[in-house]
UniProtKB/TrEMBL annotation:
<feature type="domain" description="Dihydrodipicolinate reductase C-terminal">
    <location>
        <begin position="117"/>
        <end position="249"/>
    </location>
</feature>
<dbReference type="InterPro" id="IPR022664">
    <property type="entry name" value="DapB_N_CS"/>
</dbReference>
<keyword id="KW-0521">NADP</keyword>
<dbReference type="GO" id="GO:0016726">
    <property type="term" value="F:oxidoreductase activity, acting on CH or CH2 groups, NAD or NADP as acceptor"/>
</dbReference>
<dbReference type="GO" id="GO:0008839">
    <property type="term" value="F:4-hydroxy-tetrahydrodipicolinate reductase"/>
</dbReference>
<feature type="domain" description="Dihydrodipicolinate reductase N-terminal">
    <location>
        <begin position="1"/>
        <end position="113"/>
    </location>
</feature>
<feature type="binding site">
    <location>
        <begin position="153"/>
        <end position="154"/>
    </location>
    <ligand>
        <name>(S)-2,3,4,5-tetrahydrodipicolinate</name>
    </ligand>
</feature>
<feature type="binding site">
    <location>
        <position position="144"/>
    </location>
    <ligand>
        <name>(S)-2,3,4,5-tetrahydrodipicolinate</name>
    </ligand>
</feature>
<keyword id="KW-0028">Amino-acid biosynthesis</keyword>
<dbReference type="GO" id="GO:0050661">
    <property type="term" value="F:NADP binding"/>
</dbReference>
<dbReference type="Pfam" id="PF05173">
    <property type="entry name" value="DapB_C"/>
</dbReference>
<feature type="binding site">
    <location>
        <begin position="87"/>
        <end position="89"/>
    </location>
    <ligand>
        <name>NAD(+)</name>
    </ligand>
</feature>
<comment type="similarity">
    <text>Belongs to the DapB family.</text>
</comment>
<feature type="binding site">
    <location>
        <position position="34"/>
    </location>
    <ligand>
        <name>NADP(+)</name>
    </ligand>
</feature>
<protein>
    <recommendedName>
        <fullName>4-hydroxy-tetrahydrodipicolinate reductase</fullName>
        <ecNumber>1.17.1.8</ecNumber>
    </recommendedName>
</protein>
<feature type="binding site">
    <location>
        <begin position="111"/>
        <end position="114"/>
    </location>
    <ligand>
        <name>NAD(+)</name>
    </ligand>
</feature>
<comment type="subunit">
    <text>Homotetramer.</text>
</comment>
């Protein structure tokens, strides 16, 4: 399977390159990176600055880049009828609508975190939120100092999984200007940015007599890359639609 990698020169992009090169059934078709130069190549692979400049074909796209690429990437994917895995975070509502519209024509996997561990954690959180209704819930997420969006897409994904079990839950982003007692239905979000932290997430369930903390720590970016690669292989057998890592795990 010939795969285009968007965010080719990025940190996660490099992990995707490694994962693809180590898979005997896959190869890199080309790369896309905002930092690419004209007629850029890296280890024999052509790297384009944007999709408007792409003059090659591929059989699938893995995107870990920036929301600025979404529209042109989706246009290319729909035109060439290729599946897309989107691991880019920081998408706004308009971006997500474009993804949803494109998924009517091609298969798309949209996930804030393509790692398998964190996606297994979602199911556990649903059960905890349902059973521990008297516990206060707080989410603490930590990332490197280069991450622009906050809270992280993964933190929002963790919250969404709990909200499925408890529709009354709502997010509370920080408490700097909130001069009141916390409400049972709120879920606090707290963001830490520093150093080279890859991706740490703690979900705290605080009760009157005990505290439970469910944690996930990504040790390398390889977890995202391996999940995305498995995702693009899954999409290859789908006609169209919007998918999640849960679909991939279920097979």
């Amino acid at each position: 399977m010939k795969i285009a990698i968007v965010g080719y020169y990025g940190k996660v992009g490099k992990s995707v390159i490694k994962a693809v090169n180590e898979d005997s059934g896959c190869e890199i078709a080309f790369g896309v990176s905002r930092s690419a130069k004209e007629n850029d190549t890296k280890d024999g692979i052509r790297v384009f600055k944007n999709f408007e400049a792409v003059d090659m074909k591929c059989e699938g796209i893995i995107d870990f880049s920036h929301r600025d690429n979404i529209e042109s990437m989706l246009d290319y994917a729909v035109k060439n009828n290729v599946p897309v895995v989107i691991g880019t975070t920081g998408l706004n509502e308009d971006d997500e609508k474009k993804v949803e519209e494109a998924s009517k024509n091609i298969p798309i996997l949209l996930s804030h975190n393509t790692g398998f561990g964190i996606n297994i954690m979602l199911g556990i959180l649903k059960k905890m939120a349902k059973e521990l209704k008297e516990f206060d819930i707080e989410i603490i997420e930590k990332h490197h100092n280069r991450k622009e969006d906050a809270p992280s897409g993964t933190a929002k994904m963790l919250f969404d999984s709990m909200k499925e079990a408890r529709p009354e839950l709502y997010p509370q982003y920080g408490r700097d200007s909130v001069l009141q007692k916390r409400k049972k239905e709120e879920v606090g979000f707290h963001s830490v940015r520093g150093g080279n932290i890859i991706s740490d997430h703690d979900v705290i369930f605080a009760g009157e007599d005990d505290v439970l903390t469910l944690s996930h720590q990504a040790l390398t970016d390889a977890s995202f890359a391996k999940g995305a690669l498995r995702g693009i292989k899954y999409l290859k057998n789908q006609k169209n639609g919007l998918f999640s890592m849960e679909d991939v795990i279920k097979g």
